[in-house]
Specification:
386 residues; Neuraminidase; four-stranded antiparallel sheet; 3 helices; 41% strand
Length: 386
């Protein structure tokens, strides 16, 4: 999940993380002149069990909170209440657990949502549930399994799910775990491991899911795979027709890619394990290969695992519109940049302004476009004007 389960097992810090937390190394740069200094992180929820993601439907005040143990809660008007309990289905240990939630683009009308979790020993599963506006909870009887894939190890499970601008569901899976692409999935387009999957779900599909006609390997054994060469795309997000992917590095570089959504990027190779970040690893000639290169990297030694975030489109900080926020799980440092002509410009660290979020597991966007940060220790924060 966050980089490798040897760093965080059952709530116990390893010496490597302890060092990372005690010697903070900023991977951003000084604030640019046109970004605000008066910002703060407001704690909006606490005492949660390993929160790992938050999301909302556009225009909705309900903030859905995903907890790794198998609980989905809602924060509304300052009150947290549980709306889905699948603890009995979820294997929660190390990097495994309830890992993601995506609300259908027509959630306000159909109430459909998709959860990503691990079960047994060990399978990644995507289930569909329907939210009942009368009870204010998800109807557990509405559960329908959409997709599953066996995991050969307990790390690099991925788990992110999100709907793209094309209406399809995108699912991130790591390379199967271990180290150095143990299971040789990174460059294998015949499996969904080491890839981002793209499928059609919900009303109008012929089964649990359909394969989009413009996926790149329709005749192969994994026609659902859309792009490949990822190590562990823990968090990704869409901004218009672009997809920002935070791919967790091994020991050299953490990396962020920005690719086109949908058909334009079908079959794209993000490089792992031929390359890690901008460095050739398994192939000394990787620079001449047809790979997608990251727009930003930073040394893994400066943290431990990139936590991909979101492009800011809220109303509280007009000068930050279009800036992408991301962070590092170990240092808790939040940083941002503005993508201009494919280049990460106006890079900055927010550590001196916002402080650090302990075990920064995720970011999220509320129903009105404001940015949230999630701490695995149990708290949710919102970026607010000071």
């Amino acid at each position: 999940m966050f980089r490798n389960s040897r760093f965080f097992r059952y709530g116990v810090l390893s010496p490597k993380i302890a060092i990372a937390l005690s010697v903070f190394v900023s991977f951003g740069v000084a604030a640019s002149e046109n970004t605000p200094e008066k910002a703060t992180l407001t704690k909006v929820a606490q005492n949660l069990t390993s929160p790992i993601f938050v999301t909302s439907a556009p225009g909705d005040s309900k903030l859905f909170i995903v907890q790794q143990n198998g609980i989905v809660s809602i924060l509304q008007d300052g009150v947290v209440r549980d709306v889905l309990n699948i603890i009995d289905r979820v294997t929660h240990a190390g990097e495994a657990g309830l890992l993601g939630l995506a609300l259908h683009p027509d959630f306000s009308e159909n109430g459909l949502a998709y959860v990503s979790y691990t079960t047994g020993s060990l399978t990644s599963v995507i289930d569909e549930f329907r939210y009942d506006n009368t009870t204010g909870e998800f109807d557990t009887a509405s559960r329908r399994e959409i997709y599953s894939i066996a995991q050969p190890a307990r790390n690099h499970n991925g788990g992110m799910v999100a709907f793209g601008p094309d209406g399809y569901l995108y699912i991130g899976f790591g390379d199967g775990g271990g180290a150095n692409d143990t299971y040789a999935n990174g460059q294998n387009f015949d499996t969904a491991l080491g890839s981002i999957v793209r499928i059609a779900v919900g009303p109008g599909t012929s089964g649990p899911y359909d394969i989009p006609d413009d996926n790149p390997a329709l005749d192969g054994p994994a026609p659902e795979a859309w792009i490949y060469g990822v190590r562990n795309p823990w968090r990704f997000s869409f901004d218009g027709d672009q997809l920002y992917i935070g791919d967790v590095g091994q020991s050299g570089e953490e990396e962020i890619h920005v690719v086109a959504a949908g058909k334009a990027a079908s079959g794209l190779n993000l490089g792992w394990p031929l390359a890690e970040g901008n460095t050739c690893v398994a192939d000394a000639a990787c620079r001449i290969k047809d790979l997608d290169w990251p727009v930003l990297t930073y040394p893994t030694a400066n943290g431990c695992a990139v936590t991909g975030g979101y492009v800011y489109r809220g109303e509280n900080f007009p000068t930050l519109t279009g800036h992408y926020f991301y962070g590092d799980f170990c240092t808790g440092e939040i940083s941002s940049f503005l993508l201009e002509d494919g280049v990460a410009t106006k890079q900055r660290s927010w550590a001196s302004t916002l402080g650090r979020v302990e075990f920064l597991s995720s970011f999220g966007i509320g129903g009105f476009g404001e940015l949230y940060a999630v701490s695995l220790t149990g708290s949710i924060f919102r970026l607010d004007p000071e």
